[in-house]
């Protein structure tokens, strides 16, 4: 299926690894023109080069922290009029007892998980409205919908982001600007690889054993973690020409962990 976005300009914030990378790959495969931000230069340059080589798309790296004003200015200077905006970040740290989460923890996390995507939407959606075409996808977390004490720094800010994006989605839908969210469960991303490899080293186990422990404890029906490139494919679908009547939605991708009837 042709998603009809060849030549569309797309910003992907947090696109050098994980589901952000998967999104860059899927959009590049559809012929979009990519502008990809991340803080770490080496991995970002490598990712952009690999994807450009594999797909033939134009993939421009922007070394920037999208949670800062300076970073946002740099990203928007490289691509002032995007047709597509995809936003993600690294998973916030796991939390223990809710009483141990400090005000600083909250404020640091709000910058990257909530305020940054809000600032980007404010900056780029008016232009999308004027041009009569736009797609926005925020990659949040399943914990936004299904709260847990261990995800206190991840779920609540993204629940607010979903609420905000649905409000904005309703305000701009008549201009063919569609705003949706992906709420992932557990996937084999760069951050998961790092944290579960460290856990395995500490416990004298393997990465695979630690993943299986999590799957068994949380009873993931698919009995595995997901593939971030497959999340990227869903992101691209939400960014497609055909996605012109789908807005304000939040798609949970978690191997069946949190399914209800509706
Ligand atoms: N992985 C999972 O199993 C899982 C489960 C539930 C929810 N999620 C959610 O899914 C989203 C993506 O997670 P992931 O596992 O794919 O992350 P990841 O593998 O850590 O990749 C995150 C990407 O974002 C970039 N990034 C992080 N902070 C940034 C910033 N301030 N400015 C610019 N770029 C930034 C990282 O590059 P640099 O570090 O170089 O900046 C990297 O490219 C997150 O919202 C996470 O909470 C993930």
The number of E-state strands comes to 7
Query: Distance N terminus to C terminus?
Result: 27 Å
Q: What structural class do the secondary elements suggest? A: alpha/beta
By CATH reckoning, the class of the largest domain would read Alpha Beta
Q: Helicity range of the residues? A: 40-55%
- Structurally, how many domains make up the residues? 2
Judging by the overall fold, what is the CATH architecture of the largest domain? 3-Layer(aba) Sandwich
- Within CATH, the superfamily of the largest domain carries the name NAD(P)-binding Rossmann-like Domain
Give the bound compounds.
NADP nicotinamide-adenine-dinucleotide phosphate
Determine the CATH topology of the largest domain.
Rossmann fold
Continuous helix count: 8
How does the overall form come out from the CA principal axes?
Answer: globular
Radius of gyration: 18 Å
- Give the biggest beta sheet: 7 strands, parallel
Strand line-up in the sheet with most strands: 3-2-1-4-5-6-7
Q: SSE order, as H and E?
A: EHEHEHEHEHEHHHE
Give the rounded overall mean pLDDT: 97
Beta-strand content estimate: 5-15%
